[in-house]
Design brief:
single chain, 252 residues, alpha/beta, Rossmann fold, 7-stranded parallel β-sheet, 8 helices, 15% strand, globular
């Protein structure tokens, strides 16, 4: 019987790559995102190419009522969620704290922290009722150290780091593994979102070295998932070979 994985923020980047990799492994998928066209397109691709079942759900993880409506009322055939990938997240802006834009702060806090909490609360109860599961939170190297102008984004990812460790303590007696994967520089829409559509500035972030790809991150996710039942890979930091810290990248 095929397992079920739920991936938030599946419409692009790391979430999309994770969904494709899971489908290749035979997982049936619940994929969520805000962009209806992209979520729908991905669902069709997964069903067509990998012959798995897909439940596309379009809602905003920042909205508690939407999360509880869609995930708290899953169809009967989708309620046995084996794996949750808390991937939805973003960075917006790169300002000093005194020049920070409050709307940017709220978007990051509401998505990266509160959205993860809303989803985890619903799905952890599903996993408790079914007798186990695996929750994987996508953190960041920004959750391990801070960097100039990264203030609130770094704070949200430090929160994910703390929550991952606390969730493991709360849930391990229910046979639920909790893992965290913290990537360094990954070439996705991340910088386009951070710089609010300034594609030239975003592209410059990845010039002069080979960053991680979304597919690289997805492969590490599968390594975590495929560990033996008695093994929980609690925390992984994965970076390009050219990167030594959040701020140290060997650009040629």
């Amino acid at each position: 019987m095929s397992k079920i994985a739920l991936v938030t923020g599946a419409s692009s980047g790391i979430g999309r790559a994770i969904s494709i990799t899971l489908a290749k492994e035979g997982y049936n998928l619940i994929i969520t995102g805000r962009r209806v066209a992209l979520v729908t397109e991905l669902a069709k691709l997964l069903e067509s190419n990998y012959k798995v079942r897909v439940l596309p759900l379009c809602f905003d993880v920042r909205d508690q009522l939407q999360v509880e409506h869609y995930l708290g009322n899953l169809p009967e055939s989708w309620k046995e969620v084996d794996v949750l990938i808390n991937n939805a997240g973003l960075a917006v802006g790169l300002n000093t704290i005194d020049q920070g834009i409050v709307d940017d702060w709220e978007r990051m806090i509401d998505t990266n922290i509160k959205g993860l909490l809303y989803v985890s609360r619903v799905i952890s109860n599903i996993m408790i009722n079914r007798g186990g599961g695996h929750i994987i939170n996508i953190g960041s190297i920004a959750g391990k150290s801070v960097y100039p102008n990264g203030n609130v984004y770094c704070a949200t990812k430090h929160a994910v780091d703390a929550l991952s460790r606390a969730m493991m303590m709360d849930l391990f007696t229910h046979n639920i593994k909790v893992s965290q994967l913290c990537p360094g520089a990954v070439e996705t829409e991340f910088s386009q979102v951070r710089f609010k559509g300034d594609n030239e500035r975003a592209a410059n972030v990845y010039k002069g070295f080979k960053p991680l790809s979304a597919e690289d991150v997805a492969e590490v996710i599968m390594f975590i998932i495929n560990a033996p039942a008695h093994v929980n890979i609690a925390d992984i930091v994965v970076m390009p070979a050219a990167q030594a810290s959040a701020t140290m990248i060997d650009k040629k």
